[in-house]
Specification:
single chain, 2 domains, 8-stranded mixed sheet, 4-stranded parallel sheet, 23% strand
Length: 419
């Protein structure tokens, strides 16, 4: 296939063409030519006002629910949602049935790459069945293609197991992912503990539950001289701890979610179950502090925390609703809506996650494989349920005005257009 992109603004600091407007000719999945007014015939021509492109985006925390929970999401529908959201690579959580805790399950996910438009990277469970009790077959999973290791939506509680896992992955320079949450603190908490939870009459969970886990795991990572990535960080104090650890030479990184940058606990006044997430959305002051940390470079990645839930587990009383919200389709538009600069957004979605998790770079340069996201950063639009490609519709962004729309992706020698 030959693809010709007309007059696209390239955003890629690693490319000699960064911040320039160029034509790009792609032949059989390889960038053949970059220049002005390329004269060539093509099977597909992409041309639109305000078009930008960058190396393909990476999401490091996606729940595809397959196998076992296909009524919520399948690997195919998740890949379609990722493509609509501009992602060419997604890291797939192990919290399925059966759990991704051995090489056959890793291979099940990797085999799906033949038929989907994005690259699926399995995250192997740290422990058997993601129960936090005994280590899973991490080495075998790594050999079979696991990108990293995590118990996913089940934060690892045992310090003893965590230190063993950190030491184990050192043998192949692996990375542990952790949602920092001490579940023994306010285990029945439904939202952030504070004035709003008191006013709404909902049990709260203090930010301390997150901060204690961050502090603990930093110490364990220092002891093991290993690598750890915190995802879904929501407390400014957690970011302060992580910043100190980085300054001290400890190999820790972190990501935040788009919904923590957009919503606060005050948005729960309507008891919207789509805003029941873990870790919970915090105060308006916390939200602003997270945004400042992102802009100042204290945050390494953005992770969608795409977590589909079926209608029965969201259209119910807040107490009984399951945690989680879909996020692949809205990530880019939310970052634009909250005012994250475009260059920073591309760093967080492409450059940084590739470095942390040792994915190949996707520099926009002749002779390189085309792994590209196409987008229109200035377009404002209202996100509707018709925009959702996920099987589940549990998004708190429905009806919200977002800024920045994905035009398509080029990956695996295919062009996926959205309009």
């Amino acid at each position: 296939m030959i693809i010709l992109i007309r007059r696209a603004h390239i955003i890629d600091p690693a490319s000699p063409h960064h911040d320039s407007v160029q034509d790009i000719l792609i032949t059989n999945g390889i960038i053949e030519q970059i220049g002005q007014e390329i004269d060539a015939s093509a099977d597909e021509v992409v041309s639109m006002e305000g078009l930008h492109l960058s190396p393909g985006w990476v999401d490091v925390f996606t729940h595809c629910c397959d196998p076992g929970f296909e009524y919520r999401e399948t690997l195919e529908s998740c890949a379609q949602a990722a493509a609509v959201g501009g992602f060419t690579h997604i890291f797939v959580l192990p919290n399925t049935q059966p759990v991704v805790h051995n090489k056959s399950m890793v291979e099940y996910i990797r085999d799906k790459n033949i038929s989907v438009p994005v690259s699926l990277h399995p995250i192997g469970a740290i422990t058997r069945n993601a129960e936090g009790k005994e280590l899973a077959e991490m080495y075998d999973m790594q050999v079979s293609g696991a990108i990293a290791f995590s118990d996913g939506i089940n934060p690892l509680q045992s310090a003893g197991i965590m230190i063993k896992a950190l030491q184990y992955v050192k043998t192949f320079n692996g990375v542990i992912l952790q949602v920092p949450d001490d579940t023994s603190i306010a285990p029945h908490g439904l939202m952030n503990e504070g004035i709003v939870s008191t006013r709404l009459g909902l049990p709260g969970k203090p930010a301390m539950a997150e901060e204690l886990m961050v502090a603990r795991d930093i110490k364990l990572t220092r002891y093991a001289a290993s690598r750890l990535h915190f995802t879904g960080v929501s407390s400014p104090k957690s970011l302060e701890y992580i910043g100190r650890a980085k300054d001290g030479g400890i190999d820790v990184t972190c990501s935040v979610t788009p919904y923590h940058l957009y919503f606060s606990d005050e948005d729960l006044d309507t008891y919207d179950t789509n805003l029941k997430v873990n870790l919970p959305v915090r105060t308006p002051a916390d939200r602003l502090a997270l945004k400042s940390a992102v802009i100042e470079g204290k945050v390494d990645c953005i992770s969608s925390h795409h977590n589909p839930q079926d209608t029965d587990h969201k259209v119910c009383e807040f107490e009984y609703a399951k945690s989680g919200m879909i996020g692949l389709e809205t990530t880019f538009g939310v970052l634009g809506a909250v005012g994250i600069p475009l260059g920073k957004t591309i760093q967080l979605l492409s450059e940084h996650p590739r470095k942390i998790f040792q994915l190949a770079s996707a520099t926009i340069e002749t002779g390189r494989e085309a792994d590209i996201t196409l987008f229109l950063p200035e377009v404002k639009y209202t996100f509707t349920i018709e925009d959702i490609r996920s099987k589940s519709k549990n998004s708190a962004f429905t009806g919200k005005e977002l800024t920045g729309k994905v035009a398509g992706i080029i990956h695996k020698n295919k062009l996926i257009r959205h309009f």
